[in-house]
Amino acid sequence: MNPSADPPPVREPMPQKQSGFVRFLKGVYLVVDASAKVVFLSIFVGILGGFFIGMLAGGGGPKVPSSAVLVLDLKGPLVEQLTGRSSEDLIGALAAGDAAKETLVRDVKSALDKAREDKRIKAVLLDLDGMAGSGLTKLQDVAESLDEFRKAGKKVIAAGDRYTQSQYFLASRADEVFMSEDGMVLLEGFGRYRMYYKDAIDRLGIEWNVFRVGEYKSFVEPYIRNDMSPEAKEADLDWMGDLWRGYLEDVATARKKKPEDITAMIEDYPARLKAQGGDAAKLALSEKLVDTLAPRDVVRKRLVDLAGKDADGKSFSKITLDDYVKAQGLRVRNPLETGDAVAVVVAAGEILDGTKPPGTIGGDSTAALIRKAREDDSVKAIVLRVDSPGGSAFASDVIRRELVLAREAKKPVVVSMGTVAASGGYWIATASDEIWVNPNTITGSIGIFGMIPTFGKALEKYTSIHVDGVGTTSFAGKGRLDMPLDPRLGEMMQLMINHGYDEFLERVAEARKMTKEEVDKLARGRVWSGRDAKEAKLVDSLGNLSDAIASAARRANMKPKYRITFVEKDLTFKEQLVQQLLESRAVRSLLASRVKTGTPPPVERVLLDLTDETRRVLAWNDPKGIYAHCLCEVK
User: Fold this and answer.
1) For residue 233, what are the CA distances in angstroms to 138, 191, 192, 193, 336?
2) DSSP letter at 76?
């Protein structure tokens, strides 16, 4: 063949003649598709236009009525830090008619503290139907503010169609607990169940190479076992037992019951439900878990009695949590504020390398926030609020190093642990002057692991694709995932894992004034409750974020009237616009009818668990593939 010859002409296929009916259907589809796009664009432009008109007009923000009920309409999980939002979040929410929602613990506590002294607020309504499962320490933080609100002589009313375990924890703090006549209170205890993949991995022909130190480092077990190891069961029952006892004690005290009575009811639930003719609502009433079974209109009448009617005279006078936070400017950062400050940096989410949005801990981005606090002359002390199961060992050490520099700059560093501060979350806490922990915080899990799955056998088995080649050294190309792992690479990986664990032990031993041998006995990947961690001397004091802030101020010898400033990433104009649009009344109204409730259906729940596990592993980006991670949060 002559390589310079012109290629043969390309023949266009003959067009297929379509029936008139098919052409008609295509035409209908194009019209409907174009109409849908026009409608969607019109809605978006209308919302955007209304938003800007409101901004230009000024004074269009929410107002607190002269007499009102503060409605704590908690949506999604309680979080320490709102997840970063992008323009894709806005488009996706509008297109799907749904919105991923979270409730910031700080917003709830600030609103309750303000409302306690606000004469316009007559009562609080706990609207918990949309609240998802939340960490026990976060629930306790909110419950503490509810207790303070009640001590001021103001009523707390809880009303729900039904109550999940997390929802009921807060509802139990109310003066009056209403529930639908068709409702139920679901208390089931704490459990930790996972999917195990070993047989599936073997069947697919995948070689899942796992490297770890610590028999309690159970994160990797689903990839190498079909069930939970005895060590993992022992450790998990230990710390979950502490958390469950804490839950029972709080709820029993609030409802003037004994913890053992609630336990007896749960274990004897089928028989007691049978005695009530299968009526779960009547059972909850007879067990004094709720005070009144009533439809929603009865609840509305009760709230009218407390705060009067709204402007239309059709319901009770109210203001929602979001509107109250905005009306009171509780989340506004004022750069004009001066005076000495305690800076709070929130480290919430999994720890990944690089710069990450809020809701995820980026090694670089979180370190930058700490550095910003260190370089601010008005900041005299730093509190790191940790709510993380860990992640990248490298990123954890980047953050830890920045805390070391802050201490070298003579600024006290105090760590406050939230729901979970384990593995990498504990690693970063070692560079502090003091660690405060809630009795029910999940902490410890001092251990290291790495995983390398290879797919060579699976390729050969299912596609008959084979991989072969040559390299200039015995290691060239041996890191490919489509080839079996070279034993020498496996040996190298285990050596690095061992080194990482030894380094972890050294960090802890130095910080806690212990020997490496003493730390090793407490480590091995084992998880501890905050109460047990205190006894094991892994933390210093039991208390919440406020206690940690006060301690940091004392360490810095600060005067009583110091500022508390949350150091957060500065949002770009685009990010601010997206955030305000997502929180605007127009968007909230558009999405209100389709916002998901707190608990997904059972089948969706299983799929979500599987998706979350996959998402988590795919997001990992440690440069060495070495992780200090604990999958140990329960809700």
Assistant:
1) 25, 11, 9, 10, 53
2) B
Q: Which residues of 37-76 are buried (b: 16+ CB within 10 A; e: fewer)?
A: eeeeeeebeebbeebeebeeeeeeeeebbebbbbbbbbbb
Report d(CA 197, CA 222) in Å as an integer: 5
H/E stretch holding 243 reads helix 230-254
- Rounded to whole angstroms, how far apart are CA atoms 449 and 428? 17
Rounded-to-integer distance, Cα 245 and Cα 231, Å:
21
3-state SS class at 222: helix
The superfamily CATH assigns to domain 68-190+251-327 is: 2-enoyl-CoA Hydratase; Chain A, domain 1 (3.90.226.10)
Higher pLDDT, 73 or 45: 73
Residue 332 CB burial class (10 angstroms; 0-12, 13-18, ≥19): exposed
- Segment 268-282 shows an average pLDDT of 97
**Whole-Å CA distances, 115 to 170, 299, 405, 574:** 17, 21, 39, 32
Please give the pLDDT value at position 597: 47
Which pair of tokens denotes residue 310? 């709204």
How would you class 466 by CB atoms within 10 Å of its CB: exposed for 0-12, middle for 13-18, buried for 19 or more?
exposed
- Active-site residue identified among 75, 101, 217, 534: 217
The three-state secondary structure class of 452 is strand
Q: What would the 3-class secondary structure string for 316-357 be?
A: ECEEEHHHHHHHCCCCCCCCCCCCCEEEEEEEECCEECCCCC
**Could you tell me the CA-to-CA distances from 456 to 459, 460, 476 in Å, in that order?**
5, 6, 17
More confident residue, 305 or 588: 305
Residue 631: closest CA among 345, 208, 232, 241: 232
Residue 564 near residue 548 (C-beta atoms within 8 A): no
- What is the third-level CATH fold of 341-570+601-629? 2-enoyl-CoA Hydratase; Chain A, domain 1 (3.90.226)
**What confidence score (pLDDT) does residue 623 get?**
72
What rounded mean pLDDT belongs to the chain? 85
Q: Could you tell me if 477 and 234 are in contact, meaning their C-beta atoms sit under 8 angstroms apart?
A: no
- C-alpha 276/C-alpha 598 separation (Å) is 27
Please spell the DSSP secondary structure of 138-170, one letter per residue. HHHHHHHHHHHHHHTT-EEEEEES-B-HHHHHH
CA distance 358 to 564: 20
Q: Taking each helix axis from N to C terminus, what angle separates 393-408 and 487-512, rounded to the nearest 10 degrees? A: 30
Domain ranges of the chain: 26-57, 68-190+251-327, 341-570+601-629
Assign 573 a pLDDT band (cuts: 50, 70, 90). Answer: low
Q: Is 217 assigned a catalytic role?
A: yes
Distant-in-sequence, close-in-space partners of 615: CB < 8 Å, separation ≥ 6: none
Asked if the domains 68-190+251-327 and 341-570+601-629 are classified in one and the same CATH topology, the answer is yes
Residue 536: CB atoms within 10 A of its CB come to 18
Q: Which helix (H) or strand (E) holds 305?
A: helix 296-307
Burial 180-207 (b: 16+ CB within 10 A, else e): beebbbbbeebebeeebbeeebeeeebb
- The one catalytic residue among 134, 166, 423, 432: 423
Q: Does residue 316 surpass a pLDDT of 90?
A: yes
Full-model pTM: 0.83
Backbone angles phi, psi at 160, to 5 degrees: -155, 155
- Arithmetic mean of pLDDT, 490-517: 94
Distance (Å, whole) CA 206 – CA 507 = 36
The verdict on whether 529 is a catalytic residue reads: no
Q: DSSP 3-state assignment of 306? A: helix
